[in-house]
Model the fold of this input.
Amino acid sequence: AYRRIGHLDLAERELKIFEEMQAGSPDEVTPLLTQGEGLASASQLVQAQKLFENALEKYPGNPDILFNLGMVFFLQNDWPKAIENYQKSLLAKPNQVNPLYYMAQAYYQNSDLGLAHETITRAAELAPDNPGVCQKYGEYLADSKETREEGLKWLQKARTLDPFLEQIDFDIGLTDLNLKDIQGAIVSFQAALKRDPANGEAAFRLAE
Done:
């Protein structure tokens, strides 16, 4: 199985289990999706891609297949192809949080920062109490000096909703540091290190 929405970092911690199959998928599609997800989780991305592409020939426009194909391209760092399939999934079934969440990150990695912010904003509007969405929205807002304080609020909300989100203490600490709240940053970096003593980023920041 894939992992659920959370903090993506495009290495392994970004591999959060994908959303469960949405209700309404035909019975014939569900086994294909399960098989494809298993291949992707086993890093057999070429095989997963072929399976989903073949599935689309039989079930053209199926939003779940399109989303999963987008995830395969995402894991291959093929941002344009990932975005294309997320867009098609949303066209077939609007207002899905998962395609928006991952599409925002694909835009970000593709240096389309404006579209990344626009897309994660849409996800936050649809799912304002989803911890992973709140974290990513806060992270993107915190990138800009003008919206950094608002970003901190979203990051803090994410931690309140789920204190065990990966990297959440580090994200808050880095934002505190950029806001010149040194004591707040120290507390958050220490919390990040307590959770994961191998967190080199947090250790580096504390040593600065």
